[in-house]
Specification:
Elements lengths: L9 H8 L19 H7 L1 H4 L2 H11 L5 H22 L1 H6 L3 H9 L5 H34 L11 E2 L2 E2 H51 L2 H5 L12 H15 L1 H5 L2 H4 L5 H34 L6 H6 L4 H34 L6 H14 L2 H4 L3 H29 L6 H4 L15 E2 H15 L8 H5 L1 H21 L7 E2 L9
Antiparallel strand pairs: 1-2, 3-4
Helix pairs in contact: 2-14, 5-11, 5-14, 7-19, 8-9, 8-16, 8-17, 8-19, 9-14, 9-16, 9-17, 16-17, 19-21, 19-23, 21-23
Length: 502
């Protein structure tokens, strides 16, 4: 491990465990840190090459930018994403602590519950169900290609608002995702190591196909959409793309310590994640634009759903292979961004009742019971809800990074962090609620969302993640400086007498 990383001893872990912390919340000792540069390099590959990301690129082209400018904007976005993940993951890699404890170091042991619940208990579970449903639609198409009779099972009968083939497809895909989630980081390492080269092969092959059928790179670069938004400032269009790309990472970026806690060193996670995201986005920027535009030129349509392009192919084996890889990327994204964080956060909220695996099971069952296919019937309200949950994570990340690097100076006292919550030690710096952090988060959230309700401020909502992150970052540091100048003003608003029993 790096000399700058804190090496947690077994004695410390034993002491913390005696304070009623389960294994999933304890800091990782050196022998349990098994993710090196290679593991982090492959970790996010599947999360970049997923179906919604390819569709988003079509939206970027509608902004009026040329295809080459869209490529450049996406690649530059990767710099923001990699900086966000590596910096916010530093607390996890230095001390071996998960996101739940990183949140406690920022918001206090009571204060950590709300942002933790929003990340792992609401956004993660809802997105887990919705992505399972989206993936199951692709699986349904693939099974239908292999076995056409499957689509006739049930004769059109609806169960809980979904067809029998649809329910079977959803259940199969849901179960596969649950198994990956139960395996945690260990099985995910193996899964992504196999998936990454498959992504390169399939996406690379699709890009070659698109170049060939479009007549070369020239027609693709010259492609333009007649009804694109030509009035938008190109520089502002770049920032909208930056915001859209990094907003995709708002949730996994906030909880990245759940992965960096397993890093062999801080250097390993920073190098691995940076290389992973830059290489993945370089390939994605090129392939997404080429495949979508090349396919649209070839078929004479404007098609931004990559699955629809694959369905039009004549080669049955090629269809099955490509669909399989995109299904696997959905599983990878679901594991890293949703079910693993949900498992850890439910553990943090109910440490005496749940461990990581039981947290995954509870989250998975809830994701099934909410019947995501029904939620999709009201797409507008659901996406407003989920976007609102995602918007709060920009301010949360801003406060977390400001706190760790500029207030705590990259120093965390593990003995105080792993307090006995049944003892109300008001002198403990992590006890209770960090009031400045909450004020900064709420004010920044209002600023990032106000444009959705007040048209005058729409410009703020166009770059909501940046508005939320930057405003929370600045407000928190200002409030923190103000409180530190008044000795009578407590930094933390302590819990009521009796403490927190959970």
């Amino acid at each position: 491990m790096d000399m700058k990383d804190y090496q947690v001893t077994q004695e410390e872990v034993t002491r913390f465990k005696e304070r009623n912390y389960n294994d999933d919340l304890l800091p990782k000792t050196e022998d349990k840190r098994n993710m090196g540069v290679k593991n982090f390099f492959t970790l996010w590959m599947g999360s970049v090459h997923n179906i919604p990301n390819y569709t988003a690129v079509g939206g970027f082209i509608f902004l009026g930018l040329s295809p080459i400018n869209v490529m450049f904007a996406v690649v530059i976005s990767a710099l923001f994403v990699s900086a966000f993940l590596t910096l916010n993951g530093k607390a996890g890699s230095k001390y071996g602590i998960p996101f739940a404890m990183h949140l406690r170091a920022t918001y206090g042991n009571l204060g950590a519950k709300l942002p933790g619940f929003l990340r792992g208990g609401v956004a993660a579970i809802a997105w887990f169900g919705l992505q399972n449903y989206t993936g199951s639609l692709a699986l349904l198409i693939m099974i239908g290609k292999i076995w056409p009779g499957f689509l006739e099972i049930g004769g059109g009968t609806q169960i809980l608002g979904i067809s029998v083939p649809g329910l079977i497809s959803f259940t199969i895909f849901w179960f596969i995702n649950v198994l990956i989630g139960l395996g945690g980081g260990g099985i995910l390492n193996k899964f992504t190591a196999i998936l990454s080269p498959m992504i390169y092969i399939v996406v690379g092959g699709m890009a070659i196909w698109a170049l060939r059928v479009a007549g070369g790179f020239g027609p693709i670069l010259a492609y333009s959409i007649p009804d694109a938004t030509s009035s938008i400032n190109p520089i502002w269009a770049y920032f909208i793309i930056f915001n859209s790309v990094i907003a995709v990472w708002a949730a996994p970026g906030a909880s990245v310590s759940d992965f960096t806690q397993n890093a062999t060193s801080t250097k390993a996670q920073m190098m691995g994640q940076t290389l992973s995201l830059m290489v993945a986005y370089l390939m994605f920027a090129f392939s997404s634009v080429v495949i979508l535009i090349g396919g649209s030129i070839h078929y004479g349509i404007q098609e931004w759903n990559i699955l629809n392009l694959i369905e039009r192919w004549d080669s049955f084996p090629a269809i099955i292979l490509a669909m399989s890889v995109f299904l696997l990327t959905t599983i990878s994204t679901n594991a890293t961004g949703n079910i693993i964080p949900a498992g850890y956060q439910l553990t943090a909220l109910f440490p005496k009742k749940l461990n990581y695996k039981s947290g995954v099971i509870v989250a998975s069952i809830i994701s099934f019971l909410i019947m995501p296919w029904k939620l999709m019937e009201n797409a507008d309200s659901i996406f407003i809800f989920l976007n609102s949950i995602g918007a709060v994570l920009g301010p949360v990340a801003g406060v977390m990074i400001a706190s760790y690097f500029f207030v705590q100076k990259e120093e965390i006292n593990l003995d105080e962090l792993y307090m006995n919550v049944e003892e109300h030690d008001e002198k403990n710096q992590y006890y209770g609620l960090n009031k400045p952090a909450y004020i900064a988060t709420i004010v920044a959230l209002i600023l990032s969302l106000i444009g959705q309700f007040v048209p005058t401020f729409k410009v703020l909502s166009d770059v909501s993640w940046f508005v939320g992150f930057i405003s929370a970052f600045v407000i928190y540091l200002v409030l923190k400086k103000a409180t530190l100048t008044k000795e009578a003003t407590p930094i933390y608003e302590n819990q009521s007498k009796g403490g927190n029993k959970e």
